[in-house]
Structures are given as C-alpha cells and as structure tokens.
Design brief:
3 domains, alpha/beta, 24 helices, Rossmann fold, six-stranded parallel β-sheet, 584 residues
Amino acid sequence: MEITGAQAVMKSLEALGVDVVFGYPGGAILPAYDPMIEAGFQHVLVRHEQGAIHMAEGYAHATGRVGVCIVTSGPAATNLVTGLTDAMMDSVPVLAITGQVASTAIGSDAFQEADVTGITMPITKHNELVESVERIPEAIKEAFYVARTGRPGPVLVDIPKDILNATLTWNWDDRVELAGYRPTVRGHSKMVREALELIATATKPVIYAGGGLVRAGADDELFEFATRLELPVVTTLMARGVFPDTHELAVGMPGMHGHYAAVRAFQETDLLVTLGARFDDRVTGQLATFAPHAKIIHVDVDPAEIGKNRPVDVPIVGDVKVVLEQLNEVLGAKAAAGELERFKPDAAAWREHLAQLRREHPLRVEQPHEGVVKPQTAIQAIYEQWGDEAVYVAGVGQHQMWASQHIPYTRGRQWINSGGLGTMGFAVPAAIGAKVGVGPDVPVVAIDGDGCFQMTFQEIAAAVQHDIPVVFCVINNGFLGMVRQWQHLFYDDRLSQVALPQDLPDLLKLADAYGIPGFRVQTIDELETTLAKAASITDQPVLVEFRVDPDEMVFPMVPAGASNDELIESAEEWHARVAAAEQA
C-alpha cells in the first residue's frame, strides 16, 4: 500500500497504541495534520508549544505511558526546549515530533529553519533528523522504544516537509533492533545477595526512595521489601506516594524543605538503601557532610548514576522494579525456610527514634481562627476536599513545597511536579495532560502559585475547548514567594522585583473570560464552603483563587550549599542564628 510520509507518521503512532497527541500546526508539519483528521487518536490543540510538551509530560507522569506532542519547525520546535529539558531531568518518557523545512533547504537559513536535532541533542535521550520517507516508521518506533525503556526520557524525531509529502510502501514490524542499546534490567545476583547481607548488619538503615521507583511502577515491590524487613522509608520530592505516607515506616520527604525526621534520618543512618535516586544536591545539601556514617547500596537502571556523586558499597545496575522483585524472591525463600529473621536488621530502637523525631518536630502552621488564610491551610483544605482519589499537580516554588509537605500521598503517580529543572509554568498544562491520561473518574487538581500560573494559564483555553475538567487552584500571595523568601533571609529583606499585584489580572474575571466557574477564598471562614462548591462541578474546568498571607515562608529549610545538619525549622530560629552570629 502506497502512502505519504505524513500518513506513515499517523499509522506509526496508531500502531504504537498512542491515544492522544498534544500539538499545534504550522507550515512544515502541515502535511501531517491532514491525515490526522482520520487518525485513531485524540488531538489536543494547545495555545503554545511549551504547553504541548508539558501536557505530554503530565500524561506520561500520570499514566507511565509515553506522552506525544507534535509541532512545526523553527520557533515551534525551539519552544519545546524547556519541556524536553524538564523531561530529561525527571526521566519522563515523551516523544516530540517536529516538522522541518524541506531537506533541500536545510542549511540555507530558510524561513522557520532551526537545527532542531543539534539544539536538542544535550536535552534528549535520543533524537533523529529523518532523511528518507522509508525511514519514518522505524524512526518513530525506535524513538518510542528508547523513550520508555531503560531510564525513561524524552526523544525527538525531526521530519522535513518534503519527506512528509513523499510516498512509501507501508510496512510495520513490531520488533525493535537497536545495535548497542541494551539496558540492563536484572540486577547481578551476587550484588543482590551482598545487599541483603549488608542490610542484615545495619542498626540504623533507611530506604532512600527516589523517582525511579515511580517511573518503574514499583509501589508494590517497594512496599513488600520495606515491610518485610521493617526498613524506614524516606521518599524524595519525585517519589512522594510511592510508599504511603500513612504507613508507620514512612519518615517523610528529605532535602532542602524536607521533613525534619527525614533529614535527620539521612544524617544519622548507617546504611542508605538507595532505590532509583540520584543523590541530587537538593537532597544531599553539602555533599561532603551528607550521610557521613552511612554505607551505600545503590540500585539504578542508569549505570552513570551509580557512584556519580557518592561512592557506593554495593552497586546494582538494573530496573528497580525487577531488582526489588529479585530481593523479595530471595527474602520469600528465606521466609519459607524459616530464615527470614537473620536478614532483618536489629533496628527497633532506630525506628522508635525516627517516630519520636516525627512526633517532636511536626510541620508548623499557626493558622488564626479568623481572618487571612495561611497557604498551608489552603493546601490542607484542598486535600480534605478532593482526598486520596485525586492526582495533585504542582508548579514550582513555595506552593510546590507546601503541597509536597502537607498532603499525605498514598500511591505513585498521585503527585506530579517539576523536580530537577524546577520549571515555572509546569502545573497548568501538565495537569491537563494528566487529566487526559487518567480519564473522567479521577479528579486532577493543579496547585499553582500566582507567578507560575501567569506563565501558562492560556492553556485553560485548551481545557475548555476539549472538555478537560481540571481544578485549577491558585495560591495567590501577590509575590514571587520563594524568591521573596530568599531575599528576606539572605539579602537583608531587600525585595527586588518580586511583587505581583494580586488583582493583575483579576482571576475571577479571567475565569469568566474563559467561560468557566471561578471562586475566590479570602478568609478562613470561606474556605470549606467555597471548596465544596468548586468540587461539586465535575463537567468543566474550575478556577479557585486563594488570597493568602504573603509573609508566610517555607520551613524547614536547609540553606543552599549548607550541610543538612544546619536545618532550620522556623523563621524565628533563623533570625536567632543570625543574631547570635552577629554578636559573636
């Protein structure tokens, strides 16, 4: 059967089981948008190409499947750069298909020409400029495979317009043969045994659970492993929910704005069982003083991560879900033989110590019974209204940290955010993509800040046009909150270019302009009833604005570059330290 390259793109996506594409048409990609009319998948028309890549990310975060976006050449393709980098940092499987000027015009500075593969080479796991029409099916199939296997990540296929218009004989083979690309899936059995022997000797073990567990879908395997050996679990920002916060072994989130007990667990432990984590600087603080007494077991599908930031005692390269299955299989056999107790570390005192730290150092919120709403209170109320069934998507900044701290997550993929790159403007489009992925029965709530929200709120139009009922919650403190916090703490409260007037724009008028219900919460007594009204609307997008206390800051906090031992629990503690240092 003779078809065009553009038709081959559509048929390839259909063969791969793609059910939705996020995109924006334009000149070079136009041939692909004609056969898309008959394609067997949904297309969501975004309002900016950055929205397309973030929607694809949100879809991938929420489903574990490859998110797909399609845009044209030049500025459209370069508008994907931020999202591709974000996906690379957070190991998100996305496929970007970009149009390119005709192959005969490449290198001539043609209209809307850009060296897309050159630009995106450092920020994609794989990319390709397609040079013949016959190559299209294989190029898309191989890119899709690379995106979702090994350490997941973004891939890009750039297709010149003349190749989209050319014809080929259609042929599809599900097999993928990529010379030199063989991700290691199973861990070495010797290393698996060594890991269990090392765990058995520890007295203060802790599982350092990273985002790789979420990518691998390893919730159940982690739960079995941790509970069988009674190992405390610390979940990073990217792993929130992969082990339920409600479980007695859950210690909380580590890092710059982590829970006190989780930060101290890392500093006091004698063994870190590191699963799908990369020793990120926001977790370790000053690397030289991080977990100073700990031996390290490190499981990761990406061998480049093992030993990159911290020497490792037991390295295990492999898919963390598969490796946990291997560990659990050994433990199951030992249990059947009545030998499991030998592999359980003697850590009862350690578990009680961490539980005591959790009791003695809770998160602090001083909410008056009347008047202005604290942002933490608003986020707690959001959770109380939408509950455990919802998926929560955050932007970047103070609201992101509060949402991670104050919502008890109970499953992987329940919490979506931009961790590694810290991309403002992520929440609105990512929440739309997530909602498309999870379907009509799962609420998706975007928790955004007023600064982040104004970067991408135009994508609400896409949600309205395509009937995607996301709840958009805006924590409006009238400032770039995290930047203001740093200026207050580290720049003598010299506030520079951080004010965002709360009425610019008027968010209720904005909601009205998009034809969706809009609500505003200004005082504590309005909180419960307003959220109940918002939650009762499930057939269209909803916007809820919270006018919150602008002076509230995120604590605990480890100052950038400082040791985790310098964790600060409150503004009062910070100012006391500064005063003591000045007197000294």
